[in-house]
Write a structure and sequence with these properties.
Blueprint: H1 6-13, E1 16-21, E2 36-42, E3 48-51, E4 60-64, E5 70-79, E6 84-88, E7 110-115, E8 123-134, E9 147-151
Antiparallel strand pairs: 1-2, 1-4, 2-3, 3-6, 4-5, 5-6, 7-8, 8-9
């Protein structure tokens, strides 16, 4: 029972990097000066990562792999309204996260999240999947319907 959550967390950690974003003189945000850190999930073998848009301060950043390597990363896309961004860092060479089958997700399921809040690397949080479904029409995604997952992690 002791490894009920620690084993899955260890597997997930191999796909979670740290983003270190330095402020840019022509910054993308009006945030405070200095570096900002956050978590990024390896999404594909080609070095594509998903992170929070509020972490991105300039088009270039450092990606720190779970084994401590520091590699360059660059902003590919961001959507500030939904706080999501894509970063490419091919030299990270990390395994992509294994995602669940979206059709199998049900409210009440246990979920696990790993992040780097306030610079605390590999913080683990658990919660419950609250809802799965399409967003209301007024929250459409660039003219299309978006399937959404809400959890309390």
């Amino acid at each position: 029972m002791a490894s009920f959550l620690s084993d899955p967390a260890a597997r997930l950690r191999s796909s979670v990097a740290q983003i270190i974003a330095e402020a840019s003189p022509h910054g993308l945000t009006n945030g405070p000066p200095g570096p900002v850190t956050g978590a990024a999930i390896a999404w594909s073998d080609g070095g594509l990562f998903v992170t929070s848009a509020h972490v991105i301060r300039s088009p270039r950043m450092t990606v720190v792999t779970p084994d401590g390597r520091r590699v360059p990363g660059e902003l590919v896309w961001q959507e500030r309204r939904r706080d999501v961004a894509l970063v490419r860092a091919p030299a990270a060479a990390m395994p992509p996260v294994r995602t669940a089958d979206p059709s199998a997700m049900r409210p009440g399921s246990l979920v696990l999240a790993i992040g780097h809040p306030f610079g605390l690397v590999d913080a683990v949080s658990t919660g419950v999947l609250q809802s799965v479904g399409e967003l209301p029409l007024e929250l459409d995604f660039e003219g299309g319907r978006l399937r959404w997952v809400q959890a309390d992690v």
